Amino acid sequence: MDRKLRYGMVGGGPGAFIGAVHRKAIALEENAVLTAGCFSSKLEKNLECGNAYNIEKDRVYADYKVMAEEEGKRKDKIDFVCVVTPNSTHYEICKAFLLAGINVLCEKPLCFTIEQAKELSALTKEKNLYFGVCYTYSGYPMVKLAKKLVEDGEIGNVINVNAEYLQDWLIDEIGGGDQSTTKLSVWRTDPEKSGISNCVGDIGTHIENTVAYITGLHPKKVSAVLDSYGMELDLNANMLVEYENGVHGVYSCSQVCAGHLNGLAVRIFGSKGAIEWVQEDPNYLRVTKKGQPVQIYHRGTGYVTGRAAELNHIPSGHPEGLVFAVANIYHSFMNAICNKLDGKENTKDDLDFPSVDDGVEGVCFVHASVKSSQNHAAWTELL
Amino acid sequence: MDRKLRYGMVGGGPGAFIGAVHRKAIALEENAVLTAGCFSSKLEKNLECGNAYNIEKDRVYADYKVMAEEEGKRKDKIDFVCVVTPNSTHYEICKAFLLAGINVLCEKPLCFTIEQAKELSALTKEKNLYFGVCYTYSGYPMVKLAKKLVEDGEIGNVINVNAEYLQDWLIDEIGGGDQSTTKLSVWRTDPEKSGISNCVGDIGTHIENTVAYITGLHPKKVSAVLDSYGMELDLNANMLVEYENGVHGVYSCSQVCAGHLNGLAVRIFGSKGAIEWVQEDPNYLRVTKKGQPVQIYHRGTGYVTGRAAELNHIPSGHPEGLVFAVANIYHSFMNAICNKLDGKENTKDDLDFPSVDDGVEGVCFVHASVKSSQNHAAWTELL
Amino acid sequence: MDRKLRYGMVGGGPGAFIGAVHRKAIALEENAVLTAGCFSSKLEKNLECGNAYNIEKDRVYADYKVMAEEEGKRKDKIDFVCVVTPNSTHYEICKAFLLAGINVLCEKPLCFTIEQAKELSALTKEKNLYFGVCYTYSGYPMVKLAKKLVEDGEIGNVINVNAEYLQDWLIDEIGGGDQSTTKLSVWRTDPEKSGISNCVGDIGTHIENTVAYITGLHPKKVSAVLDSYGMELDLNANMLVEYENGVHGVYSCSQVCAGHLNGLAVRIFGSKGAIEWVQEDPNYLRVTKKGQPVQIYHRGTGYVTGRAAELNHIPSGHPEGLVFAVANIYHSFMNAICNKLDGKENTKDDLDFPSVDDGVEGVCFVHASVKSSQNHAAWTELL
Amino acid sequence: MDRKLRYGMVGGGPGAFIGAVHRKAIALEENAVLTAGCFSSKLEKNLECGNAYNIEKDRVYADYKVMAEEEGKRKDKIDFVCVVTPNSTHYEICKAFLLAGINVLCEKPLCFTIEQAKELSALTKEKNLYFGVCYTYSGYPMVKLAKKLVEDGEIGNVINVNAEYLQDWLIDEIGGGDQSTTKLSVWRTDPEKSGISNCVGDIGTHIENTVAYITGLHPKKVSAVLDSYGMELDLNANMLVEYENGVHGVYSCSQVCAGHLNGLAVRIFGSKGAIEWVQEDPNYLRVTKKGQPVQIYHRGTGYVTGRAAELNHIPSGHPEGLVFAVANIYHSFMNAICNKLDGKENTKDDLDFPSVDDGVEGVCFVHASVKSSQNHAAWTELL
Lengths: 383, 383, 383, 383
What we know:
- Chains A, B, C, D: Residues 5-133 form the Gfo/Idh/MocA-like oxidoreductase N-terminal domain.
- Chains A, B, C, D: This is Oxidoreductase domain protein.
- The structure is a homotetramer.
- The first copy, chain A, is built from 12 helices and 14 strands.
- Chain A is α/β, with parallel strands linked by helices.
- Chain A folds into 2 domains: 5-129, Rossmann fold, CATH 3.40.50; 138-315 and 361-381, 2-Layer Sandwich (Dihydrodipicolinate Reductase, domain 2).
- In chain A, helix 1 packs across helix 11 and helix 4 runs parallel beside helix 5.
- Strand 13 (294-298) of chain B pairs antiparallel with strand 13 (294-298) of chain D.
C-alpha cells in the first residue's frame, strides 16, 4: 500500500468513544488521512472537530446528505467514509454515500430491518463498491489463526460450538438496590434507538459473526430465550443454534452477568481437536488436538503463520489490543480500495474484512432470535 | 462421631475404579470399617477381595440378595451398604437392602426409570432409612461455600445460570481416523447398560444436581438437543432450562469436546453478583460482587466459614481433590446414621448429603431431556 | 504388593494435622495397618488414640523408646514406623527405631544438625534398613513427569533454575496492626523448636529437594539473604545458588508474602525447552519446547507415561491433591519393604522415595543458607 | 491539551519496529504531528520516509546534527524530538538536541556510561528542558494503579520484592542444535553495540525502573550473577537487591528462558498485602489484602481511580496493549510541554513520565550488576 487514502467520518464528535477508536485504528495503519467529516449535529461541536482534526473548512459538513453529494462530485473525493453514528441512523447514511459512489465502513449493526439490510447489500453490488461492517473481533490475529486451523483441518470436522458474550454493565437495570441508570444504558433499552433487540443486537450478533468467520458455519435456525427482566428490550439471551449442515451449537449473551466485562469467548469443537479464543486475553489461542497436551499459541511467534502473522504489528509477548483488531479490518478494507484504484484484482484474502453481507446475516440472526423468543423458543429460520 | 460404623459393599471388585474411590473416601474419614461384601459376580475374584480387605469369610457373599437378607438379620449387621455396581443393577440391589432395613449409599444414577426411582424414594421413607446418592460434586467445600453465599444473599436473586460438563474421552466414537473404542466406551453407548441416555445420564445429571444444590433452583422444563453422531445414544447435549420460578439457564454436556477432561463448570449469576466454580480447580471459588474487583476465594482460609470450613481436611494451599469430596458426602451420611443410632435428631445441616430424592430428580431430568430432544427440542416438563 | 504391612506411629495425636495426613495417605494405599503407636505424651490422649485406631492395648506405648525396643523384639513387629513428632525430637526417635532394626519414615526436616543427619544416614546403611524423609512434593505425579522429561532430554541441558515457595501465614508476625499470633507460629520462630532456621528450614528445603529430584542438580554453594524482621528466626529468604556443574539458580521462600498460601513453584529452564510446575495446581505441568506453543500436560491422560502414569490414582480431570502425593511416597517406600521381605532386589525405580540422604542434603542446605546470610550473603558451600 | 505539537524523529526508518511503535503511540494521542526527521543514514530510505510521513522536504535531514541545529533555529521548530536509533548513538544525538534547546524523548537505555548519563541529566536541567526516557511499562494504567495502592498504604510497608523479566528469543545463542542466529540477536551480544551488558541492559533495567516507579524504592546495592554461556555478553541474570531503606528484593532477567516471550512480572509484598502485575496480561492487577480473598482488578472499571483511570483509553474488558502504554508516556510528556508553552506550572502528576534521571539510575544499575558479577557476586553499590 503505497497510496495514501483520504477518508471521511460521519459521527465521532467530542467524547464519542467509538469514533475515536476508528480514528486511532486508521492512524495505526499510517495510510489514510481524515479529510472530510460531519461529526456532530451541533454546529459548534462539528466545527471544533474539524479544527481539531486539521480538516479544511469546506469539507466540514453540517449535514451528511450534503457531505455525500458534495464529496461524491469532487475529483479529490474521499476514498471511503466511516459511519459511527447512532445505530438507528446507519441505514440512511450508508445509503446516501453508496448512492454517491463512495465506499463505506459502518459500525455494526448494519441497520434495523432485514429489508434495509438487503437493500444496502444490493446497492453495494450495483454500485460496485466496498462496504465493510465493523465486526471487530474478526480482526484479531488469533481469530484469524483459529480460522486457518479450522480450514486446514487441524481440528477435523466441526461437531459442536459453544460461544458466549457476557458483560455486566447493565446489571443495575434489573434492580438490586443502588440503581445508577446511565444515559448510555437508557438508549440501549429503547426500541426507537436500539431496534427490536438490545442484547442480541448489540453483542449476540458478534458471537454469530465471529463463529461464522472462524468456521464458515451459518445458522439455519435458532431456538432462543431472551430475558428482559421487566425492561422493554432483552438484557440476556440463551439460544440453541442449528447450522446449515445440521451441526448444533449454543450461544449465550448477556449484559447483566456480574464478573464479565467484555467476555466474548468462542469454543469450536471438532472431530480431531478443539479451539478456544477469549477476547479479554486476545493474544492467545488454546488449541487441543485429540490425545495431546493442551497447546497455548501466542500471537507473534514463529509458529504462527498465515494472515495472523501478516497482520501482526508488534513482537510477541507485547500485547496488542482491540484497536489493533479494528486497524486490521481497516488494513484489509483500505488495501482492497487501493488495489482497485491501482487496477489490481482483489483475491479472497484481500477481501478479508466483514462485508455488508455479514451485516445482513447479523440482522437476520437478530430477527430470528427475537421471533423465536416471542414464540416460546420455537425453532425459527433465518430469512 | 465417636462410633465406628460397619459397612458393606456391592461391586467394587479388582480394577473397579469407582469402588476404590468409595473405599478410599470412607478410609479418609477413619470412621467405618468394611465388614461385608459382594464384590464380584466371579467367585474367585470375590473371595480375593474379601481376603484383601480383611473381611471374615462368612460375610463375603456370592449373591447380593443373600447378603441383604443375611446382613439384615444379624445383630452386628452392617450400618450401611455402598452400591457401586453397573448402573443397570442399581435399582434391584438398592431395593433389596432397603427391604432388609439397611441404609444405602448408591452411585449415581439412582436407576433408569422414573417409576423405579420413585419406588426407591417411597421405600426409603417407609422403612425410615437413609439413602444417599453419590452426586460427588456437592461434597466439595467450595461448592458448599457457593451454596452458602447464595443463601446469604451475597449475589442477590439468581437471574441466570450457565453450567457445563465437558469431557472428551469418547471423541473416538465419532470417527476421525484412529478409532480406539474401549470396553468402557462401548457399554456407555449401549442402552441396555446405560439406560435411555449416555451423556445426559452420566454427566448432564451432575450439572442439574450441582446447580440445584447451590441455588435451590429446580428445573421445571427443558428444551434439549442431544447429538449422537450416528451412535445409539447421545454423546453431546445443549439445552435451555426453565426453573420453577421462571428464571432461565443453559446447560451443555459432552463427552466429545476435545481439550476438556472432566470439565464441570458452574456459573450462577445474580442481581448483585456472581459465582463461578470449576471442578478441575476445585479449591477456588470466583466471586464477583457488583462494582467490585473479582475475588478468588481459596479453600481453607480464615475468611471461608460455614460447612466449607467444617469439611476442610488439610490446610489452605495444599490441594484437596475428588476423593475428599466423596469423603465429605460419606462424612454427613455416616454422621446422620450415628446420630440416629445415638437417638439424636438430625438437623438440616446434618442431612447435607445428596438424597434419594435428588436421585429421583436426576432421573426425571434425564427423561425430560431425552423426550424433548426426540420431540425437536420442544419444552418438556420434568415429571 | 500382595502383602499387608504393619506400621507404627510416633506422634499424630488428636488434632495433629500432619499425623492425620500420614494415616490417610497410608489408608489410600490399602496396604498397611496401623498396629502400634505412641501418639501423645499425655497418657489419656495416647490411649484414646489407640482406641480410635483399633490398636491392641499392649501396643499402645507411653514411651517411644519402649515402643522401639518392644516392637524390635516381636515376631510380628511393625514393618516400619512413621515419625510425625515435633521437629526437635526427630533425631532421637528415628535413631531409636533404627537401632531396633525398624524401617523409618520421618517427616522433614530430618533433624537439626549436620552431624545428627549424617549419623542417621550411616546408621541406616549399617542396619540395612529403609529410611524415608517425607519431602512430599516429589510424590506428585506431575513432578515425576517433570523429572522424566528432564531425564529424557526433552528440554536439553538445564541452564537456569527459578524456584520459590511462598506462604503468608506468618505475616502477622511482622506487625501491621491486627496481631493474631497463633500457638503454631510461635514455635515456628523459636530456635529451640525450629532449629537454626524457620523459613528456609521449613519450606526452603522443599525447594532444594524438589529441584534436585527433578533435575539431579545438587547445590554446591549458596549466597543467601534471610530476613527476620526483628524476630529471632528468618521469615523470608532470597538466595542465589550454584550447582555442582556450575549452572546457577535462584530460590525464594517466605512465610510473609500475602496472597500466597502454599506456593511452591518450580521452573526448570533448559537449552531446548522449559518446565513449570505449581503445587497449588498440581495436576498440570507447563512444558515449552523451543519454537513451539506452550503445552499444558494434564495428569492421568494417555500421553503421560512412566512413573507419573503408574502412580496415578483416579482418572484425568478428577483432581488429586496433597494426600495422594504422600500416598505415592508411601507406595514406593512400602513396596521396597515388601520386595525386601520377599527377597526381591529393589531397582532404582523401586526406591523412588526421598531417602535419608535427601534429608542430609536438606540439613546441609539450611546450614549453608543461614551461614551465608550471617556472613553478608557470602557464597557458602554445602558441607 | 488544545495545542497541536510538532515533533521530529531520529531513526525509525522503514522496517524499524520501535520507531513505528513511537509514531503509532503519538498518533493515538491525536496531539502531535510528525514535522521533521532524520530517519535513516541511507539517503534514499530517508527521503522515502519523509515522503511517506508527509514531511516537507526541507525538514527531512540527512544528518541528525544538521537537524538539531536547523530545527533549533526555526521559529516553527519541533517541540520535541523522538530518538529511536541504535543504543550506541543515543548519547550524542540526545546531547545535540539538548544543546539546540529541543525537548527529547529517547528510547532506553539512555546511554552506555554513567558519565554520559550524568552529563545528559545536567544538560537537561541547565537548558531547562524536558527529557523523557521510554521505560514503557510505567505507562500501563495498572502499573499506575499499583503505584497508587502502594502510596495509599493499601499493602502497608514494602517488605520484599520479587520481580522478573524473562524472554526466550536468544535461546538459540546457547546452542541446542538448530542454530538460527538472527541479525538482531548478533548485535545484542556485541559490546560495541550493546554496551557492557546485553540482558541486564536491555530488560533487567526495566525491572529496576518498574519496581522503583511503583514502590519508590531505589537499589542501594546488588549481588548479581550474570550468565553468558560462552557468549561475549550476558544472556541471563539473577540478583539480590538491597534498597536504600534496607529492604531486600530479588530480580531475574533472561533472554534464554523457554516459554517466556516478554515476561515482565512484578510482585510487591507489603506488611498488609501484596500486588502482582504481569506485562503479558497488562489489563489486570492482582491485589491481596491480608486475610481476604485474592482480588483481581480490571482496567477501566469504576473502582479503578486516579491516574489509572485518567489514562484509560477504551472501555474495560476491551484490551489495551503496549502501544497505549507508550502513548500514555507521550501523553504526560507532551502535556508537560504544552503547559510550559502555556506558561502553566507542571505538578508532580503532570510530570508522570520516566525522566532522564530514571535513565541515569538505569545506567548505574547496569554497571553495578556487571561489576558485581565480575567480582563473584559481591555486593556492589550503585554509583
